[in-house]
Amino acid sequence: MTVRVGVIGVGMIGKDHIRRLTTVLAGSQVVAVTDVDAQEARRVAAGLPGATAHRTGQDLIADPAVDAVVVCSWGPTHEEYVLAAIAAGKAVFCEKPLATSEAACRRIVQAEVAFGRRLVQVGYMRRYDAPYRALKAVVDSGEIGTPLMMHCTHRNASVPGHYTKDMAITDTAVHEIDMVRWMFGEEITAATVLTPRRSRLGGELQDPLMLLLEMDSGALVDVEISVNIRYGYDIRGEVVGEEGTAALGEFSPITVRRNGLVSGKVPTDWRERFLRAYDVEFQEWIDSVRSGSEFGPSAWDGYAAATVSDAALASLNGAGRVPVTLCEKPALYASSR
Ligand code: NAD
Ligand code: ISE
């Protein structure tokens, strides 16, 4: 069975996912697209044999030719489309964040629980990245002892003009928030945001910022978020255990030694750094839709990440250390995290 996919939002990542669904992966066909920029939606549809450009996301979800939905529009629009897909009983892959507040994510969780079966997967692709998977395997093996801390760095060369102060948490740090829940296999219990001296390259943004996450076990995670670092896209992570440390390797595929210097390539952006992770993530999603088997990161994971990101936002806005409390986990998500 070929999964007929409809894509909502044909901006940067929407186009990249359409490319991988169309030319890289097996088992799917993009049959419909939509965007508030209707002209762009028509242009993208014209490049996809047999695809329809729908006027709205709701029309796309209702289209009987669409088996499964991919949501790649801006974060604040996700809730509406994910709820509509659940109401239509269609599998939905939603780019992160699932929604931009804890309350919106809770409504999605409630709708999916009421439906009675998992339909939602959230685009937390670090869980599919080979270096992150290797790091987690070392942590899980116990070879560095009990994990005590993790140091994370999340640097973007630049961000688009519509990027707001809050997005440093809801759009950027949310990747680490999800990743450490998965890496440590436990929930986050408190968040504190510290604001260092501002970079003049960040304009009105508080850039950089430092996020401190407290894990249920007492382990601590620090995350540097810099979104105008200019030199490239730099993602780092090091877990400190009782008996050793384990860190993601440098990402450059080659190292050049010349004139007494050693140099390597820094990825330009997330498309380059996580290229293979997105491929694996989407192939597994297509296979789950085809076979009806369990999906990856769930609505519960999206809810947990949004709850922590709400706490971090409160901290960024002056609330200091903010504790995190999750609601009771529904049985539908027993295996989630
Ligand atoms: P973008 O601005 O390039 O594209 C978003 C597109 O959505 C635009 O074309 C816009 O016109 C369209 N849009 C906005 N509101 C809409 C609506 N109500 N209905 C239909 N279309 C609408 O942004 P982007 O960088 O592609 O990000 C899109 C989403 O993907 C965001 O949630 C972002 O956080 C996520 N993202 C994830 C990753 C990742 O690493 N997993 C990387 C980049 C972006
Ligand atoms: C973007 O939306 C992503 O998800 C990227 O992975 C992240 O690095 C960037 O900061 C976000 O804006």
Can you walk through the features of this model?
- By secondary structure, the protein is an alpha/beta fold.
- The chain contains ten helices and 15 strands.
- The strands form three sheets. A seven-stranded mixed sheet has the order 12-11-7-10-9-8-15. It has a six-stranded parallel sheet with strand order 3-2-1-4-5-6, with helices on both faces.
- Strand 13 and strand 14 form a beta hairpin.
- The structure holds nicotinamide-adenine-dinucleotide and (2R,3S,4s,5R,6S)-2,3,4,5,6-pentahydroxycyclohexanone.
Order of helices and strands: EHEHEHEHEHEHEHEEEEEEEHHHE
Q: What are the segments in which pLDDT stays under 50 over at least 5 consecutive residues?
A: none
Report the bound ligands by name, code or SMILES. nicotinamide-adenine-dinucleotide, (2R,3S,4s,5R,6S)-2,3,4,5,6-pentahydroxycyclohexanone
Structural class: alpha/beta
> How far apart, in Å, are the first and last alpha carbons?
29 Å
What is the mean pLDDT? 97
Assembly status? single chain
The helix content is 25-40%
Strand order within the widest beta sheet: 12-11-7-10-9-8-15
CA radius of gyration = 20 Å
Number of strands: 15
Features:
alpha/beta; 7-stranded mixed β-sheet; 6-stranded parallel β-sheet; 15 strands; 37% helix; binds nicotinamide-adenine-dinucleotide; binds (2R,3S,4s,5R,6S)-2,3,4,5,6-pentahydroxycyclohexanone
Question: What order do the helices and strands come in, and which of them pair?
Answer:
Elements: E1 3-8, H1 12-24, E2 28-34, H2 38-46, E3 52-53, H3 57-62, E4 68-71, H4 78-87, E5 91-94, H5 102-115, E6 120-122, H6 130-141, E7 147-155, H7 167-184, E8 188-194, E9 209-215, E10 220-226, E11 234-241, E12 245-247, E13 255-258, E14 261-264, H8 270-273, H9 275-291, H10 299-319, E15 322-323
Parallel strand pairs: 1-2, 1-4, 2-3, 4-5, 5-6, 7-10
Antiparallel strand pairs: 7-11, 8-9, 8-15, 9-10, 11-12, 13-14
Bound molecules: nicotinamide-adenine-dinucleotide and (2R,3S,4s,5R,6S)-2,3,4,5,6-pentahydroxycyclohexanone.
